[in-house]
């Protein structure tokens, strides 16, 4: 009996292995497809941005970036990110806590509402703030009487960006905290730790990488948003143009180097973000 | 539920969540609803069912559908390759996936139009070898939307693939299944909900996309005019009611889509919890 | 005329008073303009600042915002605090009165020449050598020609394009409107891209290399020759076109609030001065001052120019051609 089953068993092992691993030709053709796809849709566009930015040399690149209008666009973009990212981070943590640590009616509905800004057209995201704060909007008259400027000024740009980047941190945290469960936190609480202490000592260390990733993505999006900001900005050079708007303005001025130099800052920012993120993931998996 | 009694901080966190959600998202969005009240139901229907609006909805939905499908197929392959295989330079490709999130959409539009224009280096190749013009045709919209969609699909499928237990594959294989059977009967059904979520996210985002599309679409009425562009056109004609009517319709559609995604995820979680 | 004199006298008196102040004030003006004027105002603003400094001792900085005419006028209506608007057509400026009374009803009579410091017209830009032999409007409606124009719904310049073609068709078809409609329908059937603004259309034609003919502002066509080389493109002037009168206006409501009425008015008036008119000619707009106009006369081909009055003014033209379900929508309706 052994003499007969032995080779059969061996065959079975081989067959099992085959069923667990993709044949080499499949593996390599899938790799080739992936590389071509990513190259076509991501590497080539990125390469073009860099190529155009440096097409007239390093000095032209540098002088394009040191123009006052470019500098003020960079400054405005940083201000917008500095306000929106912390606010949306606090919101994201608090929403994730409420949603994943408690059961209540309408939770699914609430999660959907949090996701909503993801799928609202940027054009609409800008329009709603015009309807709210524009001269013909709800608060328009009051704002004019009190000489408060929201639309076509920094507050309007901040608000539109807040709306666009609203779900980013929450979306990173909710699935993770759902999966983690709350046994650890319950244990800490039952040992007499305060709520705050439990949060800082147990929850934060567990979610820190996801939190950081959410913050990084939120920041990248806040700096790169075009559509919504374009509706509420007013496009005043040197005053209300963010970096993405400045790219468009320069491009329309036939200043190709200037446009792509500004774009390259945003691309570089994205890449630094992504490298940071990959490093974080690597650190996390090695933990 | 019992666990809510132990954990602290429900009131402040849910309070802040609702307040902030209300201030930043709900009140601004409600302007669309109230502005639309200025219109009678008949006026609303008249705007929404005008031929031009309907055809822009057709353009937006069909291109977003095509782009989300293509992005789902290749996004799935990409996620699979990045999770399962190792090859030289994998980390670089992995890091680049999120680029479309961060690059301003206008830059994406300008760059894609430059590449795919009939005299651009890929556009020329496609035009001369296959006779296909991409930029300034509906095909151009699809290309821009694929670019936008990539991270949505890859980043939704990837974690599920990572978590997916190889023990299930082993069980299948020990029962004598071939690789193809393991894939179609075990792996794919488990990944499918995530893939569908990624698809729906990409679709919802694609329908609303504006910045990248207008640079590459051609913007010809009835051919390549998308809904967000029509909203902008209405606004620039001082027709705020018309613009809000279209915007509200889009908002409702995207809300329903998202609700569907969330219910789908809930259903999947419940089902996998029972398993 | 008398009014103008009084105004300038008043301005001069105020200027002297202002100059007597010990330190110079810093004034900011916001000029909200349409797309192709970027290069012109970039050069005009410092010239005006120098003039104003010499006259009053005050430092004036003019900020610029450019975009499609409709979008810009809408932004001002929604609260963008422009001291002056310099737009592509009177219809958009008129909305500032119609919708929010930001400017008086008679705004167009406050400055000379219907408040248009310069005029322009619509011409064709073709690739060097004019391979398709385009000479006039009837050449660009032929089936094998691909054209680029902005969308008349969003671009002021494109509305001038449309009306110029319509005027040509009327002239050659004994004023038969049905025939004109067929003509314009054929024209837009040839459109490869409809951009939202004039500058976007130029980019499509030049950078994207789309189309055989770009229908555009005369000044925009000359700018392309200067920026991208006269060896690559040619300007074709049709036998008939339209007299485009891009108007300027002080947004009185905003200027009063900012206390800038005087400097804003002077900013626009200076456009009519010899210096202003010379810069206008230099940037390929047609000066209205007879003397400067003569200086730049050889720069522009002469052609028959129809006026917007032929269409009953902008409000009429807008309603008939560009409003929802107007002629432009009809020619794009499917099945035609």
Account of the protein in words:
The complex is a heterotrimer of chains A (287), B (275) and C (336). By secondary structure, chain A is mostly helical. Chain A is 81% helix and 0% strand. Chain A contains 14 helices and no strands. Chain A has helices spanning 2-20, 24-53, 57-65, 68-101, 107-119, 122-133, 140-145, 154-165, 168-180, 183-190, 195-224, 227-233, 243-252, 256-285. Chain A is globular, with a radius of gyration of 25 Å. The two termini of chain A are 49 Å apart. Residues 1-5 of chain A have low confidence and may be disordered. Helices cover 80% and strands 0% of the residues of chain B. Chain B has 275 residues and is mostly helical. Chain B is globular, with a radius of gyration of 22 Å. Chain B starts with a helix and ends with a helix. The model of chain C is unreliable at 13-22 (pLDDT under 50). In chain C, strand 1 (26-33), helix 2 and strand 2 (59-66) form a beta-alpha-beta unit. The N and C termini of chain C lie far apart (52 Å). Chain C has helices spanning 2-20, 38-56, 69-77, 90-100, 112-115, 156-172, 177-189, 198-206, 218-228, 252-258, 261-269, 274-282, 290-295, 313-322, 327-332; strands at residues 26-33, 59-66, 84-86, 118-119, 122-127, 147-150, 191-195, 213-217, 233-236, 240-242, 248-250, 286-287, 304-306. The chains are: A mainly alpha (287), B mainly alpha (275), C alpha/beta (336). At the A-B interface, helix 1, helix 2, helix 4, helix 5 and helix 6 of A face helix 1, helix 2, helix 4, helix 5 and helix 6 of B.
């Amino acid at each position: 009996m052994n003499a007969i089953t032995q080779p059969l068993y061996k065959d079975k092992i081989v067959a099992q292995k085959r069923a667990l691993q993709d044949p080499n030709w499949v593996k390599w053709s899938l790799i080739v497809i992936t590389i071509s796809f990513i190259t076509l849709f991501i590497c080539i566009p990125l390469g073009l941005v860099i190529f155009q930015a440096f097409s007239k040399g390093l000095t032209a690149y540098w002088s394009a970036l040191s123009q006052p209008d470019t500098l003020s666009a960079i400054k405005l973009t940083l201000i917008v990110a500095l306000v929106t990212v912390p606010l949306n981070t606090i919101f994201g943590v608090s929403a994730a806590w409420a949603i994943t640590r408690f059961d209540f009616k309408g939770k699914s509905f609430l999660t959907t509402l949090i996701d909503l800004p993801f799928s609202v057209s940027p054009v609409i995201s800008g329009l709603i703030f015009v309807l709210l704060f524009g001269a013909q909007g709800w608060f328009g008259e009051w704002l004019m009487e009190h000489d408060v400027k929201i639309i076509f000024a920094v507050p309007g740009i901040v608000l539109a960006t807040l709306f666009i980047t609203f779900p980013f941190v929450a979306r990173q945290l909710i699935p993770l905290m759902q999966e983690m469960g709350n046994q650890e936190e319950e244990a800490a609480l039952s040992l007499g730790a305060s709520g705050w202490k439990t949060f800082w000592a147990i929850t934060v260390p567990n979610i820190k990488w996801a939190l950081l990733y959410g913050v990084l993505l939120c920041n990248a999006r806040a700096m790169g948003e075009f559509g919504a900001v374009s509706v509420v900005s007013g496009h005043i050079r040197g005053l209300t143009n963010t970096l993405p708007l400045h790219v468009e303005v320069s491009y329309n001025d036939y200043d190709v180097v200037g446009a792509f130099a500004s774009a390259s800052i945003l691309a570089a920012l994205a890449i630094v973000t992504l490298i940071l993120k990959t490093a974080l993931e690597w650190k996390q998996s090695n933990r | 539920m019992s666990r809510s009694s132990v954990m602290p901080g429900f009131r402040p966190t849910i309070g802040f969540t609702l307040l902030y959600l209300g201030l930043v998202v709900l009140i601004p969005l409600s302007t669309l609803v109230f502005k639309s009240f200025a219109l009678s139901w008949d006026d609303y229907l008249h705007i929404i069912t005008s031929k031009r609006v309907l055809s822009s909805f057709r353009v937006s939905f069909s291109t977003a559908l095509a782009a989300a499908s293509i992005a789902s197929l290749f996004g799935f392959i990409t996620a699979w390759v990045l999770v399962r295989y190792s090859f030289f330079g994998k980390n670089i490709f992995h890091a680049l996936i999120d680029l479309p999130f961060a690059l301003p959409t206008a830059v994406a539009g300008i760059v894609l139009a430059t590449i795919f224009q009939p005299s651009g280096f890929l556009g020329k190749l496609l035009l001369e070898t296959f006779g296909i013009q991409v930029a300034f045709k509906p095909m151009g919209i699809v290309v821009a939307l694929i670019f936008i969609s990539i991270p949505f699909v890859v980043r939704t499928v990837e974690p599920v693939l990572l978590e997916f237990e190889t023990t299930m594959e082993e069980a299948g294989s020990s029962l004598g299944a071939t690789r193809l059977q393991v894939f179609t009967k075990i792996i794919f059904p488990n990944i499918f909900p995530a893939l569908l979520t990624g698809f729906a996210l990409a679709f919802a985002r694609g329908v609303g996309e504006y910045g990248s599309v207008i640079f590459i679409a051609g913007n010809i009425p009835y051919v390549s005019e998308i809904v967000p562009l029509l909203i902008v056109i209405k606004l620039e004609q001082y027709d705020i009611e018309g613009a809000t009517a279209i915007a509200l319709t889009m908002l409702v559609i995207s809300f329903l889509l998202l609700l569907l995604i969330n219910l789908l995820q809930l259903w999947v979680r419940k089902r996998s919890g029972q398993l | 005329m008398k009014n103008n004199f009084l105004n300038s006298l008043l301005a001069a008196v105020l200027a002297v008073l202002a100059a007597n102040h010990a330190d110079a004030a810093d004034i900011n003006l916001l000029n909200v303009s349409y797309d192709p004027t970027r290069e012109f105002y970039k050069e005009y603003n410092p010239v005006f600042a120098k003039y104003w400094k010499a006259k009053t001792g005050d430092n004036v900085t003019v900020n610029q915002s450019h975009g499609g005419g409709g979008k810009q006028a809408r932004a001002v209506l929604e609260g963008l605090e422009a001291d002056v608007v310099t737009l592509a057509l009177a219809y958009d400026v008129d909305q500032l009165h119609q919708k929010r009374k930001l400017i008086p009803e008679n705004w167009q009579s406050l400055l000379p020449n219907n408040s248009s410091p310069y005029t322009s017209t619509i011409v064709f830009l073709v690739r060097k050598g004019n391979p398709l032999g385009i000479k006039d409007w009837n050449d660009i409606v032929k089936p094998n020609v691909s054209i680029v124009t902005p969308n008349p719904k969003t671009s002021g310049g494109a509305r001038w394009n449309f009306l110029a073609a319509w005027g040509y068709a009327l002239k050659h078809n004994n004023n038969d409107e049905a025939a004109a409609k067929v003509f314009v329908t054929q024209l837009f059937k040839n459109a490869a891209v409809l951009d939202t603004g004039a500058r976007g259309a130029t980019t499509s034609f030049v950078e994207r290399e789309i189309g055989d003919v770009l229908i555009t502002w005369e000044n925009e066509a000359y700018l392309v020759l200067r920026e991208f080389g006269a060896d690559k493109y040619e300007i074709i002037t049709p036998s008939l076109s339209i007299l485009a009168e891009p108007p300027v206006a002080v947004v009185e409501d905003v200027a009063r609030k900012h206390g800038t009425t005087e400097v804003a008015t002077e900013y626009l008036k200076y456009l009519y001065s010899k210096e202003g008119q010379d810069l206008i000619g230099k940037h390929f707009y047609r000066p209205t001052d007879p003397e400067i106009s003569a200086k730049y006369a050889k720069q522009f081909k002469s052609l028959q120019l129809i006026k917007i009055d032929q269409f009953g003014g902008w409000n009429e033209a807008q309603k008939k051609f560009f409003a929802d379900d107007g002629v432009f929508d009809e020619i794009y309706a499917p099945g035609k």
